[in-house]
Amino acid sequence: MKYVEEYRDPQLAHQLLDQIHAVTTKPWSLMEVCGGQTNTIVRQGIDDVLPVGLRMVHGPGCPVCVTPLEMVDKACAIAVRPEVTFTSYGDMLRVPGSTSDLLSLKARGADVRVVYSPMEAVRIARDEPSRQVVFFAVGFETTAPANAMAVIRAHELGLANFSILVSHVLVPPAMTSILDDEECGIDAFLAAGHVCAVMGWREYEPIAARYRVPIVVTGFEPLDLLEGILMAVRQLESGRAEVENQYIRAVRRNGNEHAQDAIRRVFQVADRTWRGVGRIPDSGLELAPDYLSFDAAKRFAVDDIATLENPACIAGAILRGTKLPTQCAMYGTACTPRTPLGAPMVSSEGTCAAFYNAGRVGEPLTSATA
Amino acid sequence: MTTMDGVSQPGGLAGAACPTPHVEAERVLLGHGSGGLLSAELLRDVIIPALGAAAPKGALEDGAVVHVTSQDLVLSTDSFVVSPLFFAGGDIGALAVHGTVNDLAMMGAMPVALTVAFVIEEGFPIADLRRVCASIGSAASAAGVPVVAGDTKVVGKGAADGLFVTTTGLGRRLPELTPSAERATVGDVVILSAPIGAHGTTILSTRAGLEFEADIASDTRPLHWLVATMATAASHEIHVLRDPTRGGVASTLNEIAQSSDVRIRLEESAIPVPPAVGAVCEMLGLDPLHVANEGCLVAIVKRDAADRVLAAMRTLRAGEDARVIGEVVDGAGPRVVMRTRIGSNRIVDMLVGEQLPRIC
């Protein structure tokens, strides 16, 4: 596959690995922010071939994982209404709420449909005017522009039967929240390439300077991650703390300004609760006053639903990177992708699911396969 | 079962001037499943002619008599609910024939006879039913297996999604061929007959609302000739035969590893993934190893017979890309592991949950 295979070349991967081994003289902890990067690292076994002491910590960048239980409960409360067609990306359907999940509601007769784009939900609203069509707008800065465009489109079409349940979160406030944590042992970040394709990296510059932490904007293919790791380690070993861009084929410093305009037009920054992390000020998006009529939480009056998380689940520590999934007593026993207790086990990009699907059980892989 | 009796006029009504019922020729009606006149018409005018040469011969009885001489008979059944019914490279009819023929083949058996049962939703277009039956007919004829019996039920609108097809196949096992998921042995090699992922990605990419069209077609095809050819090169040395349908190669190999209590090691670079399949998987976030196939098989073969088996497979189109993709190794715990392109090891797990929509 053109433009993908080039970034999986085994020979180049080995060259980068050799360079990483050559420059690493001390133990370092690197956090990759995005769930897609976690998936590549675990599936390709990249952390298995890094120098001993160079540790990858899996960050909070899985949108499904950080969506609070309360938001899933709100989604379920809306989806069971007979007039509602509830649309969502597939991964959100299996996320357990406190009493049910969207897939189970579908089996009991709720009109829940998987879509691959919010524009598909707008089309359903246009084609089926008797239905109240709700789209579950989750995700980081990456999905926000498409969701903003869906609202703008629905507004242009005058669709009174379309709304979105918003659970949007932003990366930079999550990073500063992790860095402010006393337990935090993160030495450098691999920033999420796709988020930066939208937002650019200007907002990361003050973070790198204030916390003296290298930040490398990194892509998602094996070679991207290896190069991002190499760039971060080089900074650490030479005492630099800058924002660098590994993902030059997709990211510019100012990002995609059209996409940012769409986000600013439809959304405004707001406090958000992150699953397992808690409330982080100014860490998410909500609909701006001009578009409040598209707010499903208000339209279906579910704003007062408040839910506590499962106390056995250590999702917070996992998402902050202070614990590994294999350090959780529930991991692989009570909590599996079939019976997820918390969100990081639900999405394939979630840290726990990525570990589980790669068969991580605490034993080193290489000795097990020798 | 197919019956033609019970369609005589009820007594005492001769001469009563009932209005002639509207003749609906385009859609399947509830009455088409009544066992009465409409049922007989549907069989006579639509299903039997469309099945063509594969159709039952002579009067339609309550069951079929099959003449067999071998002791080892293999029986297999499968239901097909694929959506959409028609897709690039095939349709539910071809799939229903190939699915059951291939299940027999994976037991080392050549198909002797098939039965077909339809559950049809009221209102289903007759033209589509005819098309599906014609496809069953040509797939069965091409595979050299007759359709000897069948059944048709019609359910109310909304009680089924268009058309469901169940096929049952009877097969005769080739002498000396005794493949079983329990027979994988340390030292064996894993052979894959063809590139993976075409069927599942075709269905996913033709799904309504998915806004891309990939240049891709289902690989649905019969595999019993391939098995017969392999059997000319080896017999007892062919330890396991499986067709990696739902759940893909990953799930199939995990099942084998568990049944045989062995560890299977794959080489990622040896597994052929067509570019279009790879592209669809990238876009939808799927692992090609988890995607369904309908036209390839996995064979686990004693190492010293592998070259002979591969050479035989490559004489047929269905096996022209056959290759070794891994081996059965020692190790604690039944697992499938894979050496990635960058030289690290990862564990290949079974598919959890479902890939929407229905794929077979």
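qc> The mean pLDDT of chain B is 87.
qc> done
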